[in-house]
Design goal:
262 residues; alpha+beta; eight-stranded antiparallel β-sheet; four-stranded antiparallel β-sheet; 4 helices; 14 strands; globular
């Protein structure tokens, strides 16, 4: 039998949330592990998710909490037999999808995640996972990639207006198109997004209510594509408040790790 090679993606995210979330996370997590069933299935954005909290083995491990998530992937649900017959896969007792593994460290406001699923989906699934452990359903959770340099502040140095250059293979985000920033959804709404073509976007942004593409929109694009295999270039240029030219390259700015598992 031939071996199957899978790409493993590992990323680190900082968690931005109010203190009530971090205080409630531990108690909600432990309540999940003490329940009769430590796992459950729920529907979100027309996809089923299974989430399972893993009980800490000892008190020293209690500062880091491990969680497994499986997100349904409908494109896998087909069966082909030698006689040429095609049929769906019955999954009445479960779901078929991609596995995600997370380690949450509330004291440091960090989450480590890895998956063999679509690259761009890791951040979105991590956010969905964290939201299952918050007490206040109205509170907001925001995740950012952890930068390689301790005091790296490129996103904070973004000018209020400038130009963004993006070069990406559309096949890199076909599976996670629903999670893409709105500007990418608008660009990729054509039939070409379903094909493996190269998308080049070179557009102006301005931090004003009248602008269709704002500074916040640029930050969304950076956070989405910074860890995408198919992202070949992501650069921003502009002028700061002192009139100095700014050129930022986000092609390799954040902590992530890629390996192949046979």
């Amino acid at each position: 039998m031939s071996r199957i090679t899978k790409n493993i993606i590992v990323s680190f995210f900082s968690i931005e949330a109010d203190q009530d979330f971090f205080r409630g996370f531990v108690s909600n997590f432990l309540a999940s592990t003490d329940a009769s069933s430590t796992s459950r299935i729920f529907n979100l954005r027309s996809k089923k998710h299974l989430i399972k909290a893993l009980k800490p083995e000892n008190s020293s491990a209690a500062s880091a909490f491990c969680i497994t998530v499986v997100r349904e992937r409908n494109t896998w649900q087909a069966r082909a037999t030698r006689d040429g017959k095609l049929s769906g896969i019955s999954s009445n007792q479960g779901i078929i999808g991609d596995p995600y593994f997370f380690m949450v460290v509330p004291e440091q406001k960090l989450v480590l995640g890895f998956t063999s699923g679509p690259t761009g989906s890791l951040k979105g699934v991590a956010k969905i996972m964290l939201e299952q452990f918050k007490s206040d359903r109205s509170s907001k959770i925001h995740l950012d990639f952890v930068p390689k340099q301790k005091d790296y502040a490129s996103l904070q140095r973004l000018p209020d207006s400038g130009e963004m250059y993006l070069k990406v293979d559309t096949s890199a985000f076909t599976d996670v198109f629903d999670e893409a920033p709105q500007i990418i959804k608008d660009i990729g709404s054509s039939p070409f997004v379903e094909q493996s073509v190269q998308l080049i976007f070179n557009g102006q942004f301005e931090d004003s209510p009248q602008s269709r593409f704002t500074k916040d929109g640029v930050i969304e694009v950076v956070n989405f594509f910074a860890n995408q295999d198919g992202c070949q270039a992501l650069r921003i240029k502009g002028v700061d408040a002192l009139g100095q030219s700014i050129r930022l390259d986000f092609g390799d700015a954040f902590f992530h790790y890629k390996a192949k598992l046979s």
